[in-house]
Amino acid sequence: MSEGRHEAPVKRDGALADETPSPDSFSVVIGATVPTGFEYTAADEVREKLGAESRISKDRGRIYFEVRADSLPQVHQLKSVDNLFVVVKEFPDYHFKDTKEETLEEFEELASKLPWLLPLEVWKLNNTLKKRRSRRKGVLRAACPGEISSDGRKGGAKPEPQRDPESADSVIESNTASERGAASGTGKGSSAAAKEESQHGDVDSEEETGDSCESQDEGKKSELLKFRVTCSRAGEKHNFTSNEAARDFGGAVQDFFLWKPDMTKFDIEVLLNIHNEEVVVGISLTEESLHRRNITHFGPTTLRSTLAYGMLRLCDPLPSDVIIDPMCGSGAIPLEGSIEWPHSFFISGDNNTLATNRTVNNINYIHKKRQNKGSSHWGLRIDTLQWDICRLPIRTGSVDTIVTDMPFGKRMGSRKKNWDLYPSCLKEMGRICRPETGKAVLLTQDKKCFAKAVSRMGHLWRRSHTVWVNVGGLHAAVYLLKRTALAFEKAEARANLKTKSTEEDEEERRGPEVSDAAPGDT
């Protein structure tokens, strides 16, 4: 997809040539990582919001689409993508050499042959957008006025930043700078510079004395871009490792641009994505995943906002719909829904006090964020309660859609408890959901238990669609269920009658009980 675009020359020192096109005069290919299983959902969003057609990558969890460079702000507003990168060059059917040495040598030669100019122009444009966002972000780091502490009291101290438990990478082999050390900075003519940096630290910033020539050299060095190369590889037929590919390709990139390798405080991250015979070289446009956009208070099972968005798109919310998340955790689903579908009404709840407090704090964060932007409509159409999932304080047949992340039985609950919990949940969900038009979108990794529960509740629910997803390395599924047309009371009466009839048939098959007495004993 990257072939055929006009490329102006790139200077050896990494600076762009003077004749650079304006952002509205050229197009680039953008790559996006998305929740595995929701590639087509992300493609639909790109078509809807950007008017661009997407191509689903052979490597699950990635899509590619072509847009004009001035559409970059709209690209960053996509809700179904985790990370973004601009494609430098794509090789759909790369022919690797027979030996490891030949393959790595070809990677080294590749760096100087790639069309870098337009992707670097997009990277520069992206930096201006990041500066604007970082200026706005400073105000939001203070605690929200109505923040609730872990003990349930308002005005508690702001907790320490919590690590998102769902941010683990997929099970493909991936090497970042922390794993490689200075691997991507090694190569022809670069090992000495990397060694000197590791021994002496950032010498350029510490030496402030010297003659005029030295100070000029220092100024020149400080202008050099710092970079790293990240290689992710999937496939068993490669005769090299991700570490080796990143090391040799990174060394060639340094030799070509004269950039300075830095594994932590880098300005630019070059991506080398290898999936079987597919090779894609790109430049990262996101420093952290976009799925963190709404959540500041993480719990042990916080759902990614991007995955929550994909689940909500499955149920296609309509204006005035009442949508419930009965096991809200940190509130990712109702928050995403109330922001993207503001004309629907969302109710979130959980049986855990800490979970409801986290949800309220995340809602307050969005309120504060909107108020700082000067929005006159900063409130969200969302309520939060603490309740028992099996006894919801909601009228029968009053809810349009249920969207929730059910306990997997790993971090929360247990597989044994799920055998009782799942049928009870589906029964209560069937009670509050509108007959015939009601829907439920449910995420779980305990697929065997869920299938059995749906089978038992067949009088209330029928399975419509299943999306297989990867959640933190776990193979899970998102189920779209449709409510049957029977009213809850009639459905339950019919189910009880069927159960009773089944028990009677079973007794008939067993026949009359045989006496244990001997034939002659009377």
Automatic annotation (TrEMBL):
It comes from the Eukaryota. Residues 204-216 have a biased composition (Acidic residues). Pfam families: THUMP (PF02926), UPF0020 (PF01170). Residues 1-15, 194-203 have a biased composition (Basic and acidic residues). Coiled coil: none annotated. It is found in: Cytoplasm. Residues 1-24, 136-219, 495-522 are annotated as: Disordered. Its main location: cytoplasm. InterPro entries: RlmKL-like_Mtase (IPR000241), RlmKL-like_Mtase_CS (IPR053943), SAM-dependent_MTases_sf (IPR029063), THUMP_dom (IPR004114). Keywords: Cytoplasm, Methyltransferase, RNA-binding, Transferase, tRNA processing. Residues 181-193 have a biased composition (Low complexity). Residues 170-285 form the THUMP domain. Belongs to the methyltransferase superfamily. This is THUM3 protein. It comes from Polypterus senegalus (Senegal bichir). The gene is Thumpd3.
